[in-house]
Amino acid sequence: MDKADEIFKAIQADPANAAYTAAGIQPLYHIEASATVLLISQAPSRKAQESMVFWNDPSGDRLREWMGVTHDEFYTAGKLAVMPLDFYYPGKGKSGDLPPRKGFAEKWHPLLRPLMPNIELVLLVGAYAQKFYLGKTAQRTLTDTVRHYADYLPNFPLVHPSPLNYGWMNRNPWYGETVLPALRQAVRHAYR
Fold first, then answer.
1. How far is Cα 147 from Cα 28, in angstroms, rounded to an integer?
2. Is 28 left (phi over 0), alpha (psi -120 to 50) or beta?
3. CB-count burial class (<10 Å; 0-12, 13-18, 19+) for 71
4. pTM of this prediction?
5. CATH class of this structure's domain 31-191
6. Domain-by-domain residue ranges, the chain?
């Protein structure tokens, strides 16, 4: 058994994940040794977890558009790894999905990250990923952090591509005018 399989089995065996494992739900993430882009977000969506295909929902369609990659490039090019802050769908809250569980990323990310030695670009999708990885260097608001994305490279903060954020996009046209072209260029460079 290789290290990746060993960690996968340890995640399933973790008592904190017992309810998921008992229900036959597997952790959803994707580690690729050849990956040059690492995508970090909050957790899989309900639809992604049901299909066991990461970013398999309207948010994923929009994210691929933002990145400037095709469906095949996203899933089969060997350039992308996906490591959310929690590998299980957390459930529904009042205004969207519940947040990822505390302590999950702290436990599993340090074990998985060394399995991806070629990462050049880390996409931090949404406030949870930015708070976790940027910590005190993040701006006061998600909007300001995303606006100053260049200050954090090779960590690239992005707003979540959820349909819930369409209003945010309309209020912040600079995102489509400046951030997304820079994102596409950074992804193309990492995918070369």
1. 30
2. beta
3. exposed
4. 0.95
5. alpha beta
6. 31-191
- Burial of residue 132 (CB within 10 Å: 0-12, 13-18, 19+) is middle
φ/ψ bin of 52: left (φ > 0), alpha (ψ from -120 to 50), beta (otherwise) = left
Length of the chain measured in residues: 192
Rounded Cα distance between 146 and 159, Å, is 7
- Nearest CA-CA partner of 146 in 168, 182, 179, 170: 179
What are 50-60's pLDDT values in tens digits?
999 999 999 99
Q: 183: which residues sit within 8 A by CB, 6+ positions away?
A: 66, 67, 68, 123, 156, 158
Cα 175 to the center of its chain, rounded Å: 19
15, burial (CB in 10 Å: exposed 0-12, middle 13-18, buried 19+): exposed
Read off the amino acid at residue 102.
Answer: K
What residues of the chain score a pLDDT lower than 70?
1
Residue showing tokens 């809250």: 93
From CA 69, how far away is CA 191, in angstroms rounded?
9
pLDDT tens string 60-78:
999 999 999 999 999 999 9
Task: Please give the structure tokens belonging to residue 55.
Answer: 């970013």
Instruction: Confirm if 41 and 129 have CB atoms less than 8 A apart.
Output: yes
